[in-house]
């Protein structure tokens, strides 16, 4: 009798948890669904009462308006290049720096690490003018290189990698590798790098999505339409007196689709990085 009661209680608990998670998932997905609905409707549907919640038949027409207003595919390609290069560089720099802070002792180690973490609390707007001046002097205005260089040093990435390497790479393994004659870079390449691959997925998704959605710095640096990223290009959809919300939502929706696909593709690696910390 007690076992049946325990099973019933456990089942009811699981039903409550799954029900709550399902509701939370639906609430989280609703903005994306509403964005799709607006992308298939005329501009007037944006302010309609009651709100429109069913898709329309203007998905192709609205997207054709986007293509006629901005160079959507060029901006998308520029954004993919920007995010990919930044993500790869950040992963390399962060893992190398995290390895150094986690497994090596050198003068000023803690001071350097604290200084890097303190940069996370500085609002990026404060550095906008000096950063713009430096990029201008370097001749990198209106270039993707000028946008990229600001994102290469990622304090959050260094912190995450330092914490992951500290808990996942045993000191004994490092010492044994040194006794075998391995250089520091060989230890990083052959031992540390395979272990931190799950953490790469987490950091990679964070960096990729952050750079994809960043607007202020990209808008400040890029003025040439050929170099526009998707965020800057979408901003030009509303530079008219008669704003077409259907066109804007269509552009935003199709600009979000690649990001969703990338997240779903790397989702299993993201989950494994949370649950997998063992040395293999």
Automatic annotation (TrEMBL):
<dbReference type="GO" id="GO:0005886">
    <property type="term" value="C:plasma membrane"/>
</dbReference>
<comment type="similarity">
    <text>Belongs to the binding-protein-dependent transport system permease family.</text>
</comment>
<feature type="transmembrane region" description="Helical">
    <location>
        <begin position="12"/>
        <end position="36"/>
    </location>
</feature>
<feature type="domain" description="ABC transmembrane type-1">
    <location>
        <begin position="76"/>
        <end position="266"/>
    </location>
</feature>
<keyword id="KW-0472">Membrane</keyword>
<protein>
    <submittedName>
        <fullName>Carbohydrate ABC transporter permease</fullName>
    </submittedName>
</protein>
<feature type="transmembrane region" description="Helical">
    <location>
        <begin position="75"/>
        <end position="99"/>
    </location>
</feature>
<feature type="transmembrane region" description="Helical">
    <location>
        <begin position="245"/>
        <end position="266"/>
    </location>
</feature>
<keyword id="KW-1133">Transmembrane helix</keyword>
<keyword id="KW-1003">Cell membrane</keyword>
<keyword id="KW-0813">Transport</keyword>
<feature type="transmembrane region" description="Helical">
    <location>
        <begin position="186"/>
        <end position="212"/>
    </location>
</feature>
<dbReference type="GO" id="GO:0055085">
    <property type="term" value="P:transmembrane transport"/>
</dbReference>
<dbReference type="InterPro" id="IPR000515">
    <property type="entry name" value="MetI-like"/>
</dbReference>
<feature type="transmembrane region" description="Helical">
    <location>
        <begin position="146"/>
        <end position="165"/>
    </location>
</feature>
<dbReference type="InterPro" id="IPR035906">
    <property type="entry name" value="MetI-like_sf"/>
</dbReference>
<feature type="transmembrane region" description="Helical">
    <location>
        <begin position="111"/>
        <end position="134"/>
    </location>
</feature>
<keyword id="KW-0812">Transmembrane</keyword>
<dbReference type="Pfam" id="PF00528">
    <property type="entry name" value="BPD_transp_1"/>
</dbReference>
